[in-house]
Amino acid sequence: EARNHFFPSAQLEPSDVFIITVPTPITDEKTCDLSFVVSAVNAVKQVLKDGDLIVLESTVALGTTVQTVKPLLEQTGK
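The structure corresponding to this sequence follows.
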């Protein structure tokens, strides 16, 4: 039985799973530019529900999820 679970949309909509895959270009200081990650997380925050799964697939430095992404998500209280 074929099931259609993938629904592309130009508008971010509520979902159970969010996969963030955005560019993280290297800056002149040889660090990752996290502005795309932060922007994506801030967009997801607007539609986040309790129990949703967020996967960060972008190449980032160790600790980025805990130091950058987690505090942004904690602002939602979820």
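DSSP finds two helices and two strands in the chain.
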